[in-house]
Amino acid sequence: MVETILVRRGGGEPSRVVIGDALGELEELLPKGRRVIAVTDRNLVQCQGGLTGRFENIVIGLGERIKNLTTIERVCQELARMGADRESYIVGIGGGIVTDVAGFAASVYMRGMRFGFVATSLLAQVDASVGGKNGVNFDGYKNLVGTFNQPDFVICDAGLLATLPEREFRAGLAEIIKAGVIADASLFELFERHTLRDFLCDNDLLARAIIAAVRVKAQIVEWDEREAGDRRLLNLGHTFAHAVEKRSRRYVHGEAVAIGMALICAVSQKLCGLSANEAGRIVAVLRKMGLPTECNIPPEKLLSAVRLDKKRDQDAVNLILVNETGRCEVRRTPYSELPGLI
Ligand SMILES: NC(=O)c1ccc[n+]([C@@H]2O[C@H](COP(=O)([O-])OP(=O)(O)OC[C@H]3O[C@@H](n4cnc5c(N)ncnc54)[C@H](O)[C@@H]3O)[C@@H](O)[C@H]2O)c1
Ligand SMILES: [Zn+2]
Q: Domain 166-337: what homologous superfamily?
């Protein structure tokens, strides 16, 4: 099964997100007769050498701490050393860190070269792949510096996930569940009907879930362009997730999102009448997929981290609240109201 979702981008051709047995389409998607340089990471060179080995490589390090301007500078230096020019083509092969770095470097080197992604982590396939945000961390803030620039294409091939560590796989599922809770109740129900093992073993089932999650994100990104929707909905669970990540190094991003979603369910019960039954369904699905739904960070430490995370707004935070699975709202909430909510 191969499905292509087109995401509008200002002016030119839409960005193509190709999902399913999609890797076979790569040759077709790359521009003919141009030099292709892959930006990738060490793990991918090791685990997916058959893919990365097809191109000249620029290999970046691992982990959130290397997602910074120094890495962008290094990639640009490598491009210059290789004699890359604006006719060269960048393909980012990796998880969300690689796609963020590759998209940013491609956007600024020689004032912009064309680029595409082969997303190799589940999180990158469902989240980092769509929306055109390419950012790096700066001055202690996540993704503070970057560009809006959509790739020509994103390949999301479930087969590439065979070498992804299971923990990273589960972390990606958290972002798919998030998409279901925001805007697609039937995607959410897929997780009630199936086990973690089903998603690990059945590539068609997984591709269906990826397609649905990409649709949710693509639709919200497009709505927002027309200013009829609200892109902030995509941050469901992320206000508290970023606080958890700031206070503890124990969790990978998707795990922090799962904890953040469980916390926001508790908050939504108090602020917008989410029923205990609906909150229970969401927490149960997260647990069933092997994700954490609580942490032992004291609430006051989490709340102070929420405040620290928001450089620009000192009075209130935009919380994404859950009305029911498949329907959420954005609510500006003064910090003074937060104590007692979690
Ligand atoms: N730009 C956006 O819109 C957007 C959206 C969501 C997340 N992000 C960013 O994405 C990053 C997180 O993405 P991530 O979880 O993919 O992180 P990541 O890129 O660090 O990948 C996770 C780990 O899995 C490894 N890996 C990836 N694919 C593999 C494969 N097929 N086989 C074996 N190992 C593999 C990587 O080497 C890494 O160690 C964060 O920095 C986040 O800010 C960006
Ligand atoms: Zn996220």
A: Dehydroquinate synthase-like - alpha domain (1.20.1090.10)
pLDDT tens, 200-236?
999 999 999 999 999 999 999 887 765 556 889 999 9
Question: For residues 124 and 59, what is the distance between their CA atoms, to the nearest angstrom?
Answer: 18
In this structure, CATH architecture of domain 2-163 = 3-Layer(aba) Sandwich (3.40)
Q: Pocket residues for ligand 1 (CB within 6 Å)?
A: 41, 43-44, 47-48, 62, 64, 67, 94-98, 100, 120-121, 123-124, 127-128, 131, 133, 143, 160-161, 163-164, 168, 253
Neighbours of 97 (CB within 10 A): 24
| Phi and psi torsions of 120, nearest 5° | -110, -10
Q: What span, in angstroms and rounded, lies between the C-alpha atoms of 332 and 334?
A: 7
pTM, entire model: 0.94
